Amino acid sequence: EDAVKILLGIRDKYEAHHKCRFTVEAINAAVYLSARYIADRYLPDKAIDLLDEAGSRARMDAFRRRKEKQTSILSKSPNEYWQEIRAVQTLQEV
């Protein structure tokens, strides 16, 4: 379909902008689902909007997970760090 070809053509720009990957299956799904459920716009615009929203959400989720990981690292007590260091030292001795 023409909309799929157009989205494949602009995929690189959206991947660079959102710092994520869009598979061919994701592009096909965006075209199919937007054609089926978004009535107030036309293809390929509504599929592009759907892909843009998905990329934005993926980037925000990755950012949130990274922040949670950083927060959990910083919230450990010194004793927990020493336990990890001792565990690594024990593994190196074996």
Task: List the SSEs and their pairings.
Blueprint: H1 2-18, H2 24-37, H3 45-74, H4 78-93
User: Average pLDDT value?
Assistant: 92
> What series of H and E elements makes up the topology?
HHHH
* E-strand count: 0
Task: Indicate the proportion of strand residues.
Answer: under 5%
CATH architecture: Orthogonal Bundle
Which regions are unreliable across 5 or more consecutive residues at pLDDT < 50?
Answer: none
- Rounded to the nearest angstrom, the distance between the terminal CA atoms is 60 Å
How many helices? 4
What is the CATH T-level topology? Helicase, Ruva Protein, domain 3
In this structure, how is the largest beta sheet organized? none
Q: Decide which structural class fits the backbone.
A: mainly alpha
Structural shape: elongated
Q: Can you offer a commentary on this structure?
A:
The chain is mainly alpha-helical and 94 residues long. The protein has one domain (2-93): Helicase, Ruva Protein, domain 3, CATH 1.10.8. It contains 4 helices and no strands. Helix 1 (2-18) packs across helix 2 and helix 2 (24-37) packs across helix 3 (45-74). The longest helix has 30 residues, at 45-74. This is ClpA/ClpB AAA lid domain-containing protein. It comes from Nymphaea colorata. Residues 1-70 form the ClpA/ClpB AAA lid domain. GO terms for molecular function: ATP binding; ATP hydrolysis activity.
